[in-house]
Amino acid sequence: MKLKHFEYKQRNMKIWNEVAPRYHKRWASVCIGPFQSTSKLIELVDINKGDTVLDIACGTGVVTKKIRKKIGNVGYVVGVDTSIIAIKIAKKWNERKTNLDFVNIDAEKFYFSKKFDIVTCQYALFFFPNAQKALKNMRNSLKKSGKIGISVHGSKDRVPFFSSILDSVTQYIPDYIPPGSPNLDRFGTKSALREEISKAGFSKISIQEFIFYYSPGKFEDYWKNYIKYIAKPLKEKLDALENSKRKELKKLVKEKTIQYTKKNGKIIFPWQVLILTAKY
C-alpha cells in the first residue's frame, strides 16, 4: 500500500528532527561538498540590501544566515521549516536580529499576508510530495516583480555519494525507501526542473549546473559514516540484514566506488547541483 502524503510527512519530520543536529555539524554549517552551492544560490538570485526574503525549508538556517548578511539591517528575512529541531538549531546558530524570524510551518500549507522580493529553497523541493502546491505557495508569497532561487541535487547517476549505497541497498532491502515516498531525484535534470517550475506559473527561468566535489575519506570511512549518520529507521533495516548479506552489500558498494577512488585510497565523488532562478 502506498504511503499517504500525511504519513510520509510525519515520518520525514520525525527523521529530520532526529538527524538535524548531525546534518548541521557534518554538512550544512561547514559549506563542504554540495553545500558549496549556498553561496552560488545567494549570488544567482541576486539578493540586495533592503530586500525582503522568504527562505523555504530553511533547515538549520545556513542559507538564511547568508541572506541576512546580504540584506543588511534594512531588509527582512523569514526562515521556515517543518522540523522543530532544525528551527531550534537555526535560531541558535543565527545571531538574534530584529529583522530575522524563524517559523515552524509546512511548505505546502502556509500563507503570509506580507509579500516578499525573493523566495529561496535549497535541497527541499524534491522532498515535497505535492511540489506544485509548495511552488504555488512560493509564487503567491512574492511581489509581482519577485523571483525565486531553487537548488536541487542532480539525477542519481550524477550524485554517486548517494547512489553508490542506495542502488546497492535496495537490492538487498527492497522496502528500504518506503513505497509511496517521492522520487528524490525527480527534478535532477534541467528539463524536469524547468517543466515543474514553469507549470507553477513562473517565467524567465534560468538553470545553471555546477559540479562540486566531496571526499568522504577512504572506503571504510565512507561506509562507517553512512551507518553512523543515517536515520534510525534505515539503520534498523540495515542491522536486520544477516551477516553474510551485509558483507555482500558492503562489497557491492565498494565496487561502485572504485571508479571514484584515487591511488591513495581516498574517494572523491563528483556532485551535480542544479540552481534555478525564475521570475513571478
Largest sheet: 7 strands, mixed
Tally of helical segments = 10
What is the number of beta strands? 7
Going by helix content, strand content and strand pairing, the class is alpha/beta
Catalogue the unreliable spans.
none
CATH superfamily caption of the domain at 5-155 and 183-215 and 271-279:
Vaccinia Virus protein VP39
How are helices and strands ordered from N to C? HHEHEHEEHEHHEHHHE
Q: Gyration radius, to the nearest Å? A: 19 Å
Q: Going across the major beta sheet, what is the strand order?
A: 3-2-1-4-5-7-6
Could you report the average pLDDT, rounded to the nearest whole number?
Answer: 92
What proportion of the residues is helical, as a percent range? 40-55%
Query: What form results from the Cα inertia axes?
Result: globular
Distance between the termini: 38 Å
Gross CATH architecture of the domain at 5-155 and 183-215 and 271-279: 3-Layer(aba) Sandwich
Beta fraction: 15-25%
CATH topology of the domain at 5-155 and 183-215 and 271-279: Rossmann fold
Determine and state the CATH class of the domain at 5-155 and 183-215 and 271-279.
Answer: Alpha Beta
